[in-house]
Amino acid sequence: MFARLPEADARPVVAVTVDGVRVCARQGDTVAAALLAAAFRHCRTSPVGGAPRAPYCMMGACFECLVQVDGVPNRQGCLLVVREGMQIATQHGKREAGR
Amino acid sequence: MAARSGAEFDVAVIGGGLVGSCLALGLARFGQRVGLLDEGDGAVRASRANFALIWVQSKGLGLPEYAGWTIRSSDQWGAFAASLKEETGLDVSFERPGGLHLALSAAELEHRAELLRRLHNQPRTASFTTEILDRERLVRMLPHLGPEVVGASYCALDGHCNSLRLHRALFAALVRRKVRILPGHRVDSAQYAGGEFRLLTRVREVRAGKVVIAAGNASAELAPMLGLSAPMKPNRGQIIVTERVQPFLKHPIVSIRQTDEGTVMIGDSQLEGNDPDQMSMPTSAAMAGRAVLSFPILSRLNVVRMWSGIRVMTEDGFPIYDQSQQCPGAFLVCCHSGVTLAATHALTLAPMIAEGKLNENEVGAFSARRFNVRQAA
Lengths: 99, 377
Description:
The complex is a heterodimer. Chain A has a single domain, classed as Ubiquitin-like (UB roll), CATH 3.10.20.440. Chain A has one helix at about 30-35; strands spanning about 15-20, 20-25, 45, 50-55, 65-70, 70-75, 85-90. The radius of gyration of chain A is 13 Å and the shape is globular. By secondary structure, chain A is mainly beta. Chain B is of the alpha+beta class. Chain B has three domains: about 10-50 and about 165-230 and about 315-370, FAD/NAD(P)-binding domain; about 100-155, no CATH class; about 235-310, D-Amino Acid Oxidase, subunit A, domain 2 (D-Amino Acid Oxidase, Chain A, domain 2). Chain B has nine helices and 17 strands. Chain B has helices at about 20-30, 65-90, 105-120, 135-140, 165-175, 220, 280-295, 340-355, 360-365, and strands at about 10-15, 35, 55, 100-105, 130-135, 150-155, 160, 180, 185-195, 195-200, 205-215, 235-240, 255-260, 265, 305-310, 320-325, 330-335. In chain B, the strands form four sheets. In chain B, strands 1, 2, 8, 9, 10, 11, 16 and 17 form an eight-stranded mixed beta sheet that branches. Chain B is globular. Chain B starts with 8 loop residues before the first strand and ends in a 14-residue tail after the last helix. The chains are: A mainly beta, B alpha+beta. Chains A and B meet through strand 6 of A and loops of B.
């Protein structure tokens, strides 16, 4: 799995939660990078086929890294930078239009 | 059936979009040796940029035969989709739950009702039902309806499908039927000599006993090479696509539909020009605003894509089906509604072409002769 590079990382820790679990990201991490660094194997299931999905392109093109962020579903995790206290949730299936 | 010539193909179909692929499949099912000449993946292609409606209501004002022809395809669609599934294993998600055209004011609803009255009052118009629904009836069909929607027109013959999967299924069926698919074979010139056709493509010359021009807007340049005429007037439409959501919209609306895989498509704009790279933000904003008035729950959804598509459009909006007098065996099939008419193109029109003659009673009204003859008002 992914690991942070061994050299000293002076960036401050940014604490977020993923499905309610506290995760220590680093300032400047994207949500997708933080998930990968914290060894989450997948971030959602496909709304069509149900298969597990994980961040892939890391540059906004593939839409594989969709997660719920602070209550809003289907955010692209690779395009959002973590903020202290951010509540990230993995997704399962399609969202509901009315919520 | 005409005797087989020494040419490589009984029929060469020019154009590998939905229209050309449906015809190629129908011809192959009829035992013809078919070559499908396609420009390639870079082509501007309505088959990849459409709204995937199978739409009957409002078709035929100005040419009543078009209503009957469209109904015929809508009625054939179920069997056609089933045959594709049987041949390829692919389900193109055809559904016909009935379609709606929403009105956001009393004036809009009256305008809609008047248009449908004029359509149905034309002589020779096939008998079919379109209803004007008031808000009370509409809310029962569409629980998420916005408060400003006053009513709608409804037709039970309207439906939709997954048109990208339709294209894929057609190609899978063509491969299975041994149709030679020739990508990169953009046709630059076409000649008729000695009872056969010679098509000069970017790759090589292709010879065939018959030719079908099904090249969308590009038919305008190809048709005159074989004594045919395809006056075209393409226009541009914009589409907004949202993220996938749980099913909430059972009926396709002319401007809003939820796909089988959950995305919501918002469309129905008509803009000038034929440049697919153009995008008007004010138009998209107006489309989105109207969609949100129709279904307020859309306001919370993320938009994931917006794109432009170029409509294949004849000068009067109706299909052109023709056969060349000058070059016997050359046919022209050119129309806007390649999804709606997919079934009848494969099941009704293709067999006529296989036999070498369009049936005047069935499709004579769609000849380009109508552009030459002054019709009585």
